Fold Glycosyl transferase family 1 domain-containing protein.
Amino acid sequence: MEASTLVLGMIRSKAVDEKRVWIGTSQGNCTYEYDEAMPLEDFNQLHAANMRADERKDAVVICHSLPFFWARPFVNEYTCAPCPPVGYTPALAVGRAMAETDIYNKEFVKACNRMDEVWVPSKFSRDTMIASGMIESKIRIVPIAVNTTRYNPESNKPLQLPKGQLVFGRHRRPLLNEYLVDIPPSPPSPPPPPRTRDRFQLENKKAPTPQPPSPPSPSPPPQLRVEAEKFKSQSMISPQRNDHPSPPFVFISTFKWEKRKGWDRLIHAYVQEFSEQDNVELYIITKRFMAGSDFSGDIYNYSATHLGMLTQEQWSRGPTIYLITSHLEAEDYAQIYRASNSYVIPTRGEGWGMPITEAMSMGIPAIVTGWSGTADFVDDAVGYPLNYTLSEVPAGEPWWFLGARWADVDITHLRRVMRHVYDHPEEAAAKGRAARQLMVDKYSPDIVAKAIVAELDRVQTMLSDGTCNHCYNTQFVATPMQVFSLKAWHTVQDIWGAAKWRVGGLRNLTVIIVLVATAAILSLLYWFKPHRFYLLYSIFKIRVLLPMLVAARNTTQKSWNRNRKHNS
């Protein structure tokens, strides 16, 4: 999302000629398709930029992914489109990186030091990386843009509430049937452009290195799980009543379901501070991330273990909490922010915090941890920074966090701040207006695009003056022999991938023979006509190999489907 906002901001602000901007996909599967969460106009512009990609031209290449996906000279983890492209010497290779804990992983530091420059979004990231061993002269601060046009309170209507699954408390508004359980399905989206793939790298089938699973959270006793399921089914039809004449005060929080986001601290503080007597609602919009997806079960388990709430009666007498896990489009996010009074997230660490800036752009104040990347744009003038203490990252978290510390929010302070905002909505609204102005003045796409253009102009000036000692750096670029070895290995893997689908019969056998013969021809071409090798290999990848593999897979899948139907 950040990368697309950056690219679209540069294009639409006219800060850079659109024809000079090209992108490639990386990490996972390069065969992408239209995502309903993204406006079609945005997708079409990004798709056009992807089709313009041409590694024969000199370029400033910005690698926008985790550092172990950067190709300097090779990647540590599989990606279908290494960045920079393997064997390619850009005018400048830039890594886009950010720190979320007090120490930057040493393997990430090595990857950053192999890049020509590293652009970070915040002072926190810069200071943390330098303290962790990064070369200071390579770091530049370039903030992350927020789409202040899409997230504009004047152009969005409030979303009709309630929405989602009622987890705690009772309904305080009139209900619409389609809102009882999650979000109603969105209308059909326009047909996407034809699927495409990055033209530089084939879809290698090497799986990422598996990480040790997270330790399971403590499960409640069987009778508690039964009560939880009973409560979830009954709470959705609980009677609506609101003893207050005014609409409920709405807290909103959006995040991936992981411990780093501090959902446990949020539930703890909110449930302890408020009760069914308070005219308040908390909406949590979340999605799965590297863990299970039983979000409401996690909440019930936590409340039973840490808050002593074991029965349906206790849950129903708590403050109102809704959980939204279904698909939301970009305009839905803007509208639910418009219907909210305050954003809250007791995060343990952020590289930046795009959902926070989006909420602030919609004119609502943010209650957020006063540490890490968010400290660059959340202060007492536009929000409510939270007190915290640093603690060691526990086992079971992503490996790049291990050995570092992150922030645990002071629950007592969080309770006090949420109560203060609830009791003083006028003050919160005033801070929200100031937050909106801050986003427009410093972090709109036009402003950030100008900052990026200033960096590009700086590089251009150094190139013209001959003072850019780190431009066209070949120190960490793969040699032709290394490139050939990598491409040959990818070819062998693709041949093996086709061989695994041999159930399709003679057709697949023909594919394998053609692949082996083509690999032999390419090897001979490399030794005798290297320049023709690169051209023919690129054509072979896109025009020959991929359709063959897809055809082989489809044939096998049809055969398996027929056998399954016959057996059933």
About this structure: The chain has three domains: 2-145+447-465, 153-179+220-443, 480-567.
